[in-house]
Amino acid sequence: LTAEQAVLKILEDTKKEIARISERAGSVSISVGKKSKPSAKMIKLAEMVAERKGLKIPTGLKSDMSICKKFIDDNLPPREKNADGTDKPFPPSEKQLAFAERIAEGVGKPIPDEARESSKALSTWIDANQSKMPARPPSEKQLAFAEKLAGENEVDLPDEVRNDMKACSAFIDKHMGGGKSKGGARGKGGGRKSYGKK
User: Fold this and answer.
1) Could you give the CA distance from residue 193 to residue 198 in angstroms, rounded to a whole number?
2) Of residues 13 and 60, which shows the higher confidence score?
């Protein structure tokens, strides 16, 4: 289950829950001074809506169902319908679409039109193509730091570390805190140690 699919499930479950609350609203009496707490699903949905729209979570939202429900009702657009009355899919967020476009550029493969219109379909497309992305090179600062560590630890810097951000990060993690203090005088073993394939 991907993150987007999990969000869609929360949306559907919360929508049903809000509908049940609304149906019972006329028959439920609330004692003065007592507040009904929103469910975890409602709170997650409110947080997701706030993140997508760049809004602040209202004070009391996590402890007062009426505040939580009003925030969701005011900011969650109604689901559009198809001609046959079924719900249209939720569109992708700008962040999800931007991420997919970076993958599309990296793998040289266009995003299908149906994936651009459905958050769920786009999430599936991302899962299928993310692993095909070429390695990202390290930043200039990251590479410079790796070269500095290589010198301090008297090891060679392999091409993989120079060309792959993840490999460069792993090299840095491995050699942090090393250097001359570990091996004593430089050149004790004669020459530099090699690391990985040259």
Assistant:
1) 11
2) 60
